[in-house]
């Protein structure tokens, strides 16, 4: 299963408290290196695991948050950066309990609204008193599980705690189309097969949408944009919803009846993966762009660029045509650290983020939103510059709770 569909669980704590041992315990295999030497795990390492009841997850083993020296400080920075991927965090401690040195990371959990709990390990050497546990529960309002990875097996309790918390996380993966369609509806998916399309397969958002439409008992039809006119001429079926690749928005909008709802894959997934209402507002700021304004394009993986690449060629061209302004563009891809001076950007445009989890996309955008820098995404930006923004949003019930509530 792809990484972007898995829950990410981060394991944090001081050096040598048993973080890697804990991962081996819940994974039921020797997956992480364990040793009595403090500082064995030096970088955040993602382990792909299948955990009974939870299914496929990514567990992130990290370096101790009490690491010292110049190198230690860099490791701690990487550990904190790993939080951006976490749907859930587990803070492991031993005899010394939770101290003032844990406060930085606890504040990060709270700031990023990451569900978390405490595991008090090495209970074979020292078992905390009832008062110590009650104090922690009262102070932080989280579960505290006492265990020994060597003698005391509480795997079922841990998995149940993880499952309950993940159900409330940002990445809890609601239905993509559930509130937009009804059983028996026809959903039409439009996907150009051009130079940029991967060979012999559909891309993940298309596959996920097909599956979601079937889960909602809809009929699904997938066709290329040039077949649309023939479809409406030959068939007497009227689709409830047409979902298109954003790059052929204009062609699709002109080929389907006005009363048929229309949106794009990128906008559909922006609703799941980003603070949607904020991105709608951010997109409208395109109208206020001025000469020499700088725009940051964020791509979430370094995919192969072919022909008229969407991020580097088409979007800049559409934006310049629409605004008539002389705009400049910066690009960041993958998990690159963001530039220092975010205020230099008048607009940020995020790609569809299909390779990232909801949590990762939101964490990527949060620093900009916190500074009130307008954020848009590929599909919204394209729809706006082509004059079909309102239409592409008509299908959504904007009263739905969105992940804006998490930020
Ligand atoms: N007695 C006892 N020892 C444990 C327990 N859990 C882990 N250990 C031991 O503690 C040492 C450190 O365990 P690790 O799992 O490597 O700890 P870590 O937190 O990953 O350490 P770093 O990667 O160095 O930060 C090893 O010698 C483990 O065998 C436990 O419950 N009881
Ligand atoms: S993560 Fe972004 S850049 Fe990578 S394939 Fe998906 S939409 Fe394109
Ligand atoms: Mg370790």
Name the descriptors.
407 residues, six-stranded mixed β-sheet, globular, binds guanosine-5'-triphosphate, binds magnesium ion
Explain briefly what this protein structure is:
Helix content is 34%, strand content 18%. It has 407 residues and is of the alpha/beta class. The relative contact order is 0.11.
List the helices and strands and how they pair.
Blueprint: E1 7-13, H1 19-27, E2 45-51, E3 55-61, H2 69-82, E4 88-93, H3 103-111, E5 116-120, H4 130-140, E6 144-146, H5 155-166, E7 186-190, H6 204-215, E8 219-223, H7 228-234, E9 241-244, H8 249-255, E10 261-264, H9 265-273, H10 276-284, E11 294-298, H11 310-323, E12 328-332, E13 345-350, H12 358-370, E14 375-377, H13 378-385, H14 389-393
Parallel strand pairs: 1-3, 1-4, 4-5, 5-6, 7-8, 7-9, 9-10, 11-12, 11-13, 13-14
Antiparallel strand pairs: 2-3
Helix pairs in contact: 11-13
* Helical stretch tally: 14
Bound heterogens, unique: guanosine-5'-triphosphate, iron/sulfur cluster, magnesium ion
Helix vs. strand class = alpha/beta
Main sheet specs:
6 strands, mixed
Which term fits the overall shape? globular
- Beta percentage is 15-25%
Determine the mean pLDDT. Answer: 88
Please provide the count of β strands. Answer: 14
Q: Which stretches are poorly predicted, pLDDT < 50 over at least 5 residues? A: 399-403
Helical content class = 25-40%
Give Rg in angstroms: 24 Å
N-to-C CA distance: 28 Å
Strand line-up in the sheet with most strands? 2-3-1-4-5-6
Order of helices and strands: EHEEHEHEHEHEHEHEHEHHEHEEHEHH
